[in-house]
Q: What sequence folds into this?
């Protein structure tokens, strides 16, 4: 079964609001990554957080990781219409080899002007 | 766009056709990947190559045949596909774990339709 599961499946907000997406996973990990995908295009890497880190920031993005709860969250602050995309978490598991990432089903974010 | 290119971007093929997808990366990576993305399903890892050697075959049917002639190029040869194989096929590359860095860089994908 899939490793990462995002919540919610879909999120609709107004420009300027914050968007929070959550990810839960099942097994121990080396790191957890977040990716963005615009409709029908390739994925773009956003941020990587290692298992010994609890929080990481990149511009308007804030990622937290709670390994005791096997969960992560992605916060996008002051959202813009251009943030409309699908967001995926991916886990790099300890049992996996050669950088094998397991992706969740994603959260579809719609930011309305 | 990233330093990973894929051709063609769109492909329509019949079930008896043979076609190939091409991926090229200009990032100096040594690991390359094929993924399949179907509607309403999570991204599925198909194959992994590390230093040109296949290290992962995720139970992919033999009608999909990968080829990695060097660390910069990856092909996916297709033959006698089924309509359910219609999907977005994504190529990605990354540094090998031994070189540090784990994020993957994706190409724009090939939208495949099997008729």
A:
């Amino acid at each position: 079964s899939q490793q990462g599961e995002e919540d919610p499946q879909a999120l609709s907000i107004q420009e300027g609001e914050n968007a929070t997406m959550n990810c839960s996973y099942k097994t121990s990990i080396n790191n957890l990554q977040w990716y963005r995908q615009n409709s029908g295009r390739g994925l773009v890497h956003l941020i990587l957080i290692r298992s010994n880190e609890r929080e990481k920031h990149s511009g308007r993005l804030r990622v937290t990781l709670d390994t005791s709860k096997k969960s992560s969250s992605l916060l996008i602050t002051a959202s813009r219409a251009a943030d409309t995309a699908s967001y995926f978490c991916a886990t790099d598991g300890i049992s996996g080899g050669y950088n094998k990432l397991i992706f969740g089903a994603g959260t579809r974010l719609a930011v309305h002007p | 766009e990233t330093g990973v290119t894929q051709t063609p971007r769109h492909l329509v093929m019949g079930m008896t056709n043979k076609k190939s997808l091409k991926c090229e990366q200009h990032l100096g990576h040594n690991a390359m990947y094929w993924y399949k993305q179907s509607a309403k399903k999570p991204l599925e890892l198909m194959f992994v190559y590390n230093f040109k050697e296949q290290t992962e075959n995720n139970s992919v049917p033999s009608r999909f045949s990968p080829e990695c002639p060097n660390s910069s190029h990856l092909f996916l040869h297709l033959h006698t596909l089924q309509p359910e194989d219609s999907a977005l096929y994504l190529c990605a590359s990354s540094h090998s774990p031994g070189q540090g860095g784990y994020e993957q860089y994706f190409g724009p994908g090939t939208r495949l339709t099997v008729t």
Remarks:
- Chain B touches chain A at residues 2, 4, 6, 31, 40-43, 45, 48, 50, 55-56, 88, 90, 92, 94, 96-97, 102-109, 111 (CB under 8 Å).
- Chain B has a mean pLDDT of 91.
- The two ends of chain B are 30 Å apart (CA to CA).
- Residues 6 and 90 of chain B are 8 Å apart (CA to CA).
